[in-house]
User: What shape does this take?
Amino acid sequence: MAKISREKFKVHEGVFDEFTLKTLEMMKRKHYFDELGRAIKTGKEGDVYFAYRGEKTLAIKIFRMTSANFKKISQYIVRDYRFRNIKGNLRKVILVWAEKEFRNVSLCHKNNITVPYMYKQFNNVIIMDYIFGKMLKDTELKNPLEFFELLIEQMKLVRHEAKLIHGDLSEFNIMVEEELPVLIDWGQGMSIKNEADFEELKEMQIRDVKNITEYFNRNYNLDLDYTQVFERIEKNE
Ligand SMILES: Nc1ncnc2c1ncn2[C@@H]1O[C@H](COP(=O)(O)OP(=O)(O)OP(=O)(O)O)[C@@H](O)[C@H]1O
Ligand SMILES: [Mg+2]
Assistant: This one.
């Protein structure tokens, strides 16, 4: 049985370690997907692949079990109260990282934030809906100000409903699907349970708001003030 399904991943052998192959086989056996497609993006911390289930196009994010930036990832884990007590080696930390992304996105989804729907996280693999769009950085928006407003609305929901800080928001982690923003890449997202948490992590939120505002200023010749945008999000107005 395992042999047959492994044949299906033959083209990917040498790319995935044994543990990842086993995880993919298991997810396939449980019908989370029928077929793995080509890579959408490969990076040093992980890869994203096309996958298919029936007529549906999916995206599978696979966190690399080896060369991840252990120090950076650990920081984002221990500073989040949900994961504060997690200790362990690189493997453990990567699995927690994948779980953290899954939990963050699920929380966003529950709070009507536009994120890719995530079906399942198992070990270092996450399976989600494929977004038929482009990254913000590769998109020429027809109406940038309108889009920026939509983004602020999303960020208010993230801050006040999901009570999260994305932590790595930029033109690389916002996709544009039919002129609407879809927020991706949530591993570093931090949960904020009270004001003290927020004070401690506030600089991450400021950085997110600054990144986005400056991107719009730079690319669309605008003159938006990121501190005002930050205040608007805080006051939820
Ligand atoms: N659901 C999706 N649908 C379509 N494309 C996706 C989806 N998820 C990710 N991608 C593509 O893959 C790229 C990388 O995904 P993502 O940003 O989640 O991971 P990453 O940047 O490798 O993460 P990290 O920053 O932790 O290394 C995205 O920029 C996007 O182009
Ligand atoms: Mg990314």
